[in-house]
Amino acid sequence: MFLVKLRAQGWLDLFANTQLGCSVKALVEFYAHCSVTQGVVTSTVGGTRIEFDAPKLGEILGVPATGFGAYVREDKTAIPPARLLEIARKLGQQPRL
Question: What are phi and psi of 11, to 5 degrees?
Fold first, then answer.
C-alpha cells in the first residue's frame, strides 16, 4: 500500500532509487536546527543555511510538491513528541537517536 501511495504521489522513483544516499549525521544536524515558519523550512547544516518552501523542494527533488504543506504545518499537536521521535528513529534507521 505504501508503494501504491508513493506511486500515486509521483514520489516512487525518489524512494526506490537505491543509488541515492544520505548522510545520517547531516540529516540529524538538519533536523536539530530545523524550523518551519509560514510554509518555509529553514535549517543549518555544516554552517550553511538552508531555506526552501514546498515548490522549491519539489524542484530540487524532482517530485510533485502538491500537498507538502500537510507535512510541514506549524501545529504538530496531532502527533505527540514521543511519536515524532519514534518516526525520526525509523526514518533515520537509528534506533538510539
Answer: -105, 0
Angle, alpha carbons 56-64-32 (nearest 5°): 50
Q: What is the pLDDT along the chain (97 residues), one digit of tens a residue?
A: 777 877 887 777 777 776 766 777 888 888 889 988 887 889 999 999 999 988 898 888 788 877 766 666 666 677 787 887 888 788 777 777 6
Integer Cα distance of 36 and 52 in angstroms: 10
**What does the H/E/C string look like for the chain?**
CHHHHHHHHCCHHHHHCCCCCCCHHHHHHHHHCCEEECCEEEEEECCEEEEEEHHHHHHHHCCCCCCHHHCCCCCCCCCCHHHHHHHHHHHCCCCCC
